[in-house]
Specification:
Largest sheet: 9 strands, antiparallel
Strand order of the largest sheet: 8-10-11-12-22-18-17-14-15
Number of helices: 12
Radius of gyration: 30 Å
Strand content: 25-35%
Amino acid sequence: MMDNQRLFLVGALALVLLLIWTTWQRDYSTPPPQAESTEAASESSAPAPAAEAPEAAADPQPADAPTREPGAEGDDPTRTDGDVIRVETDTLLVQIPLQGGNIVQARLPRHSVSEDNPAPYTLLSPDDPLFMAQSGLVSDEGSAPDHQARWNAGAERYVLEDGQDRLEVPLTWSNGDGVEVMRTYIFERDSYVVRMVQSVENTSDTPWRAYQYNQLRRSSETEGPGFLGAASYTGGVIYSPSEKYEKISFGDMEDGNLSRDIDNGWLAMIQHYFLASWVPPRDRELRYYSRFDNGEYVLGQSSSWQTAEPGETVSFENRLFAGPKEQRRLDAVAEGLELTVDYGWLTIISKPLFIALSWIHGVVGNWGWSIILLTLGIKLVFYKLSETSYRSMARMRKLQPEMQKLRERYSEDRQQMNQELMQLYKKEKVNPLGGCLPILIQIPVFIALYWVLLESVELRQAPWILWIQDLSVRDPFYVLPLLMGASMFLQQKLNPAPMDPIQQKIMMGLPFVFTIFFMFFPAGLVLYWVTNNSLSILQQWFITRQIEAGDKKANA
C-alpha cells in the first residue's frame, strides 16, 4: 500500500535513473570513426545525376568531383578580392570562402557562448566539431559549379547597415564556354533565414542541363546538458506532409543511405537549442538523401533537372535557416519546423505549457517568475485532485498508531494482518490507494513541463534574480538544490511514514540523494521543483489543519 508521497518519489527516482542512463549512453557508448581531417572530408563527392532525366528529383549517388585550385577553369586570374567573404547582419556573422562558395561558418551575435564568454555562439564551423552547409550544381558534362568550385566576388565584406532591411551577396562562376552562374545570398534584418538563388545564363550554342543539391555536413559531436542532464537529440531530421517529423540519426546514416522523394518537405541537423535547415520552395518534389562519408554525416536534397536552351536563363532556389530553436520564428519559416523543439511523446502537453509560459513571460518579463507563476497555475488546476490525495494521506497518518499495533500483533501471520488492516480501513472509511490516482494523472504534466524547461532556448542565459543569471545551467552556489532537498525532507515529515524500518531508512535518505542529483540540473528545472514542493507543502498543511479541526469539532 503506497501513499502519495512514496509514489511520487519512486516516479521521480525512475526519471533520474533514466537521465543517468541516457547521459551514460551519450558519453560512453562507442563513438563512430571520425574523419582524419577536415580536408579529407572536403574532398567528398557531390551527388551525381541519374542516367535518365526523371520527372522528380535526381537520385544522388557518390561520384568523384575534382578539387578546383586557383587559376583553374572558371577562375578569374585578375581577381583582387580576398579568399573569404564576411557578412555581418544583426542576427548572423557569416563567412563564405570563395573556394566552394558555401556558408561554412555562422555565428549568432544575439547568443553568446556562455554567461562568462560574451563571444557570439558558433553554430556552423569548418573546424572540430565540423558543421557546415554546402550547395552545388551538377550537369551532364561536368560544366557546373559543385560545392568545391572556385567563385569570384566583388567585395570582401558586406554589412547590413542601420536602416537597411536587405543585403545581397553575389558570387559569380563561369565555365569559359558560355555558361555563367550567379549565386546570390540574400540576408534580411531580424532573420536567421538566408535565401540562396542561383541564376544560370546559357550564352553557348548548345543546351545546358543540371540540377541543384543542398546538404548539411557535420561530425558526430553532441551538445546537451552536462552531468546527469537529459541528453538532447543531436542528428538529422526530415519532414514530409505524409510522414511528418522523422529523425535520421547518425546511426541510421551509418547503416544505409537514405533515398526518398518528398514534396513540400525540409531537412535539418539539430542539436540542443540550435539547428540548421534547408527549406526548399513549396510545391516542388526533391530527392532526399543521406551518406556516411569519411567519418562524417551528410544529409541533403537534390532538385529535378532543369535545361537552359541557348540564350535562356534558368534559376535554382533554396533557403537556409541557421539559428536558435525559437518557436515563433520556426513556425513562420515552414510547416512542421517547430517540431525540431523536441518534447518527445508528451508534445501534446508540452506545447500548450510552453505557450502558457511564453504568455506569462510577456506579462512579467522574467522567465524565473514565469516558471513560478506557471507552476502555481498548474497547482491550481490540479487542486481538487491534490486535495483528494492529501486528505487520504492525512487519514492514513491518523491511523498509523493502530496500524502499527496490528503489524506488531500479527507479525508472524501476514495474511491475518492484511485482513485486519482491511477491516480497519473499512471501519474508518479510508482508501489506502486514494492518493495514487491523483498523482498518476499529474505525473505526465510534470514531466511535460520538465521537457519544456529543458528544451526551450528562450531560457538559455535567461536571468532570474541575484545569483541566478542563467536558468539553463546549474545554480553556481547550489542554493536551489539545497532548498529542494529541504522541501522534500519537510514533505516526508508531513506524510505517514512507512511501517517497515528498511523502507523508513530508504525514504529518509532520498532527500539527500536527490539534493546531490539536482546540484547538476539546470537552475530553471530546480526552481520548478522547489516551487512545486513548496506549494505542495502549503496545500498539504492547510488540508491537514482542516481535517484536524473537523475531527476536534466532531469530538466536541
